[in-house]
Design a protein that fits this description.
By secondary structure, this protein is an alpha/beta fold. The chain has a single domain, classed as Rossmann fold (3-Layer(aba) Sandwich). Helices cover 43% and strands 9% of the residues. The protein contains 12 helices and 7 strands. It has a 5-stranded parallel beta sheet, sandwiched between helices. A two-stranded antiparallel ribbon has the order 4-5. Helix 9 links the parallel strand 6 and strand 7. Helix 1 packs across helix 12. It is globular. Bound molecules: thiamine diphosphate and magnesium ion. The site of thiamine diphosphate (TPP) has 14 residues, from strand 4.
C-alpha cells in the first residue's frame, strides 16, 4: 500500500518551530565537524561515522516524538541521538570515553544510548536496532501509552532478514512502529543499486505496511511525510515504512578520505543543490521569518555551544578503572 504524503502540516509550523529545526540541524553538523577534529587529533578512542548531509531525516522525524517514544539508531547515529533530546556534553563525553558520557564512556560512538530521552541505542550491527524499536512498539501497544518505536537504519539494512522479520511482526500485530530508512546511496563503498534488488518501498508494501519514498534533504518534507504516520501509529493504526533519499557528504568512516567509488561531481551536486540546511535557511529568508544577521548570530551561538560542550567533555575525568565491568551487560 502506497502512503499518501500530500498533506503539508508543516504549513502550520510557525517561524519559531522552523528556526528550531534549522538550529538543530546546524548543531548536529557542528557537533559532527567537532567529532571529526577530535578524531583527527587522536583525542578520541575508537572509530566514528559522521552524518553530515543527513541531518534533515533525524530532525524531521524526531520533531514528532516525545520522551515516551523510543528510537533505535545506527553506527551513523549522532544526529538521531541529538534530535531525540540528548545533551551535547554527555554525547561528547561518551565519544571521548569519559565518566560523564551517556554510557559512562563504555559505549562510544556506536553504542551510545540514553533511556531518559528514549534512545535505546546506536548499533554497530547493520539492522541490529530494528527489532529493538519494534519491541518498543510492542511494549507501547501492550501498555496502551500511545508511544511509538522508530528504527533508523541505512540502506544496507534493506537486505537484512531482520528488517523483514520485524516488518512482518509489526504488520501482523499492528504495532506503532515506524521504519525509517536513510538511503544515502552507499553501503560503505558499494552503490546501493548494485546490491539491492527491487523498488525499495516494496519491502514494506509486501507486508501491507503503508510505505513512501521521501526527499530526505528537505526537513519539511520529512516532517510532512511522517506526521500522519506517527499520529496513526499512536491511534492504533499500525506501522509505516519510509525510505528517505539522502547523502553523506564525507567518507563512510574517518579513514575513507578519497572516496574513489563516487565522483566529485556527484558530491558537489548534493552539497550545493540539495543541502538541507541551505534549503531551510533560504525558505526562512524568503518567507521573511528571519534575516541574514539573525541567521549569522544563530550560527555563532551554535558554534560556541558546541565548542563549550566539547571543552567540558574534554576536561571531564575518565571512569575509575575499578568500574571497568560495571554497567556492561554483554561481552
Ligand atoms: C550485519 C553486519 N554486516 C556487515 C557489517 C559491516 N558494515 C559496517 S557499516 C556497513 C555499511 C552500512 O551501510 P548502510 O546501512 O547503508 O549505512 P551507512 O553507512 O550508509 O549510513 C557495513 C556493511 C556490519 N556492521 N553488520
Ligand atoms: Mg547507506
Amino acid at each position: 500500500m502506497a502512503l499518501t504524503t500530500e498533506s503539508t502540516p508543516s504549513q502550520g509550523l510557525d517561524a519559531a518551530a522552523r528556526l528550531k529545526m534549522l538550529r538543530q540541524m546546524l548543531t548536529i553538523r557542528a557537533f559532527e565537524y567537532r567529532v571529526g577534529e577530535f578524531y583527527e587529533r587522536a583525542e578520541m578512542p575508537g572509530i566514528t561515522h559522521l552524518s553530515i548531509g543527513q541531518e534533515a531525516v533525524a530532525v524531521g522525524v524526531c520533531a514528532h516524538l516525545n520522551r515516551n517514544d523510543y528510537i533505535t539508531s545506527t553506527h551513523r547515529g549522532h544526529g538521531h541521538c541529538y534530535a531525540k533530546g540528548a545533551g551535547l556534553v554527555p554525547m561528547f563525553g561518551e565519544l571521548l570515553g569519559k565518566a560523564n558520557g551517556y554510557c559512562r564512556g563504555k559505549g562510544g560512538s556506536m553504542h551510545i544510548a540514553d533511556r531518559e530521552t528514549g534512545h535505546l541505542g546506536a548499533n554497530a550491527i547493520i539492522g541490529g536496532g530494528i527489532p529493538l524499536a519494534t519491541g518498543a512498539a510492542l511494549s507501547a501497544k501492550v501498555l496502551r501509552n500511545r508511544g511509538v518505536g522508530v528504527s533508523f537504519f541505512g540502506d544496507g539494512a534493506l537486505n537484512e532478514g531482520i528488517l523483514l522479520e520485524s516488518m512482518n511482526l509489526a504488520a501482523i500485530w499492528n504495532l506503532p512502529a515506524i521504519f525509517a530508512c536513510e538511503n544515502n546511496h552507499y553501503g560503505e563503498y558499494t552503490p546501493t543499486d548494485q546490491v539491492t534488488a527491487g523498488r525499495l518501498t516494496l519491502r514494506g508494501e509486501a507486508f501491507g505496511i503503508p510505505s513512501a519514498e521521501v526527499d530526505g534533504m528537505d526537513v519539511l518534507a520529512v516532517y510532512d511525510a511522517t506526521h500522519a504516520a506517527v499520529q496513526r501509529a499512536r491511534e492504533g493504526g499500525g506501522p509505516s515504512f519510509f525510505v528517505f533519499d539522502t547523502y553523506r557528504y564525507l567518507g563512510h568512516g574517518m579513514s575513507d578520505r578519497t572516496r574513489p567509488y563516487r565522483s566529485r561531481e556527484e558530491e558537489d551536486e548534493w552539497r550545493t543543490r540539495r543541502d538541507p540546511i541551505e534549503r531551510l535557511r533560504n525558505q526562512l529568508l524568503e518567507a521573511g521569518h528571519t534575516s541574514e544577521s539573525e541567521l549569522d548570530a544563530m550560527g555563532e551561538e551554535v558554534r560556541a555551544e558546541v565548542e563549550e560542550a566539547a571543552r567540558l567533555a574534554q576536561e571531564a575525568p575518565f571512569p575509575d578503572p575499578e568500574e571497568v565491568d560495571r554497567h556492561v551487560f554483554a561481552d
